[in-house]
Amino acid sequence: MPSSQRSGSRSRSACSAWPGPVRNEALAITAALAWWFVLEGLIPRVLREPGMAKYLPAAAARALVQAGMPVVDGAVAAATGGLLFAVYVAVIAVPAMLVAERRDVA
User: Fold this and answer.
1) Does 8 reside within a domain?
2) 29 belongs to a structural domain
C-alpha cells in the first residue's frame, strides 16, 4: 500500500490548490463587489469629501487603464493612478501572504 494511502492524506490537484490564501472565495467575491458598488460611492459622501473619490481604488485603476488619453477633470494622471493602485495591491497582498504563510501546515 502506498504511503499516501496509509497516512490518510489525499493528493491535491493544481485546480484545488489555486485559491491559496483565500479560505472562503464567496466571502472574498462578496466583499470585493460590496466595496466596488457600495463603499466606493459611499465613502466620499459620508466623509463629505467629494474630491477623495479620485484616490479610491476604482478611480486609480480607471486612470491607469486610460493611460495615454487626456486627463479628465476630477481624475488623477495615469502615473499617479498606477502608483496608487500598486499601493492598494501591496496593502492587500502583503498581509494576505503573511497570513497564508503563518497558516500553512505543510
Assistant:
1) no
2) yes
